[in-house]
Specification:
By secondary structure, this protein is of the alpha/beta class. Helix content is 34%, strand content 23%. The strands form three sheets. The chain has an eight-stranded mixed sheet, sandwiched between helices. A seven-stranded mixed sheet has the order 2-10-5-6-7-9-3, sandwiched between helices.
Length: 456
């Protein structure tokens, strides 16, 4: 009743004030939602989460490749042609052993950190302070054949190590400039690196004090068992073409990452999003649309969003232009996590959050939004594609742990996200709603709020 009476009002409003570039509310939105909602079988999603999370799916390993094959077969069984997009990357497994000792500090328990892409080696030499490790800092000291003690800040960890190595240093210690230990990355492998370890601010300053007082310190830096190797990971892409005579040229992407971190079965992170992507592909396989929908599972997200960066890089300018929204589902099924939220990289609403909030308000409750990166929506946002991460926050305590397993997965949570994302996508992909490209605004927006929610 209420909905019906809104129609003429909105028509009048849009004619009178010229304020809407989009269609007036459609009385049968819930009928359209139902086409999606009724078809979703949460047991399918749950079963796929279970099968995907039998073991960790670390990018570049056999188990990731098994997951890729599993995902392809599922898409194909729904009638899709699939594309497997390979990309190379460097995978790093951390040192099995690392240590630090300094003459005169025999009783100290060093609070150490390591760096991703750091190299192995064992060096015993004099310790010399080299400031922030910029080229200008290294001009003023002699680190040749020695171990450089460097403070965090100003330039990257990699540049500090490279500059010190260039000046002849045999190893590097980087100490923090704020509290806590550093667990940093050198960004990628480099032949010029020398062994490097991280130290806390407090302990670094203790060493610096002695050096400033003119003491000569001999240190040993040892890093063993670290390994960097070139691997291949894959994205899997299944495309639903629009109906031939209805194609409006716009593209929507629905995605998740299928890889997980070492040691974690990744049931929630992110078999949940992967399985939900698969189920939405199944549900939408034969539905009429005027929009192309690309269902994508990304590889190597946990290694720095590598799959989604590779995918976005492979897009033509025209594809980028035509892609009106990217829905990323990451960690969408934990019984122990908080409520659903939509994160954008810039903390601003966009067409994707508008559609998600509206679908939420029709189906359960309005979904709020916040600001966060940390998943595959980032590379899309960086090229100007409206994108959002759908996630439950605060996240569960099992995040990135061996406990991220199927027994912590809630069917209700999976169901809710599948419905909301499915209905949001269908609202814009179905033939009766105008192309976003022309409208620049989602149909029927609702009020929803920015939230500064605790994540972990
Ligand atoms: N699913 C997480 C992202 C996440 C976790 C978002 C907790 C919000 C709260 C994702 O798989 C992940 O772990 N991302 C990395 C960042 C990435 C650039 C390697 C992270 O957050 O450490
Ligand atoms: Zn994740």
């Amino acid at each position: 009743m209420l909905k019906k009476s809104l129609v003429p009002f909105c028509l009048v409003a849009s004619l009178t004030f010229g304020m809407t570039a989009y269609a007036a509310p459609h009385p049968s939105d819930s009928a359209f939602d139902n086409k999606i909602v009724k078809r979703i079988k949460v047991d399918n999603i749950y079963k796929m989460v279970k099968e995907l999370s039998e073991e960790p799916r670390v990018a570049g390993t056999k188990s990731e490749h098994n997951a890729v094959t599993y995902i392809e077969k599922k898409f194909q069984s729904y009638g899709y042609d699939t594309e497997r997009q390979p990309f190379e990357f460097y995978s790093f497994s951390g040192p099995t052993d690392f240590s630090f000792s300094v003459s005169g500090f025999e009783d100290t328990d060093w609070d150490l950190g390591t760096f991703t892409y750091g190299v192995n080696g064992s060096v015993t030499e004099e310790l010399v302070y080299a400031g922030l490790g910029r080229e200008s800092d290294l001009d003023d000291v002699d680190v040749d054949g020695k171990i450089a003690l460097i403070k965090r800040g100003e330039i990257s960890f990699a540049d500090k190590v490279k500059n010190a190595a260039e000046a002849g240093a045999k190893a590097v210690i980087i100490f923090n400039n704020s509290s806590g230990t550093i667990n940093g990355t050198l960004g990628g492998p480099d032949d010029s690196f020398v062994p490097v370890l991280a130290l806390t601010k407090k302990q670094g300053e203790e060493l610096l004090e002695k050096l400033d007082a003119g003491e000569e310190l001999t240190a040993t830096v040892t890093v063993e068992g670290a390994e960097t190797k070139e691997s291949t990971s894959y994205n899997v892409i299944a495309t639903k073409k629009p109906d031939k005579n209805k194609d409006n040229g716009q593209i929507i992407i629905v995605g998740a990452h299928h890889d997980s971190v070492e040691g974690a079965p990744g049931a929630n992170d992110d078999a949940s999003g992967t399985a939900t992507t698969l189920e939405l592909a199944r549900v939408m396989a034969n539905m009429p649309t005027d929009t192309e929908i690309r269902f994508i599972t990304f590889g190597a997200e946990e290694n720095g969003l590598l799959g989604s960066y590779a995918y976005v890089e492979s897009l033509s300018e025209e594809d980028v232009e035509n892609t009106v929204g990217m829905f990323q589902m990451d960690m969408v099924g934990s019984r122990d996590a908080g409520k659903l939220i939509m994160y954008t990289v810039d903390g601003e609403k966009n067409v994707v959050t508008d559609l998600g909030a509206a679908a939420g308000s029709r189906l359960s409750e309005t979904v709020n939004y916040g600001r966060e990166g940390r998943s595959d929506h980032v590379p899309f946002a960086e090229v100007g594609i409206p994108a959002a991460l759908f996630i439950h926050a605060p996240v569960e305590p099992w995040y990135h742990s061996p406990e991220d397993s199927i027994d912590k997965i809630s069917k209700d949570k999976l169901q809710e996200v599948a419905e909301i994302v499915g209905a949001a996508v269908y609202q814009i992909a179905r033939p009766d709603t105008p192309a976003l490209k022309n409208a620049h605004v989602a149909p029927k927006p609702v009020d929803y709020d920015f939230e500064e929610r605790e994540l972990e």
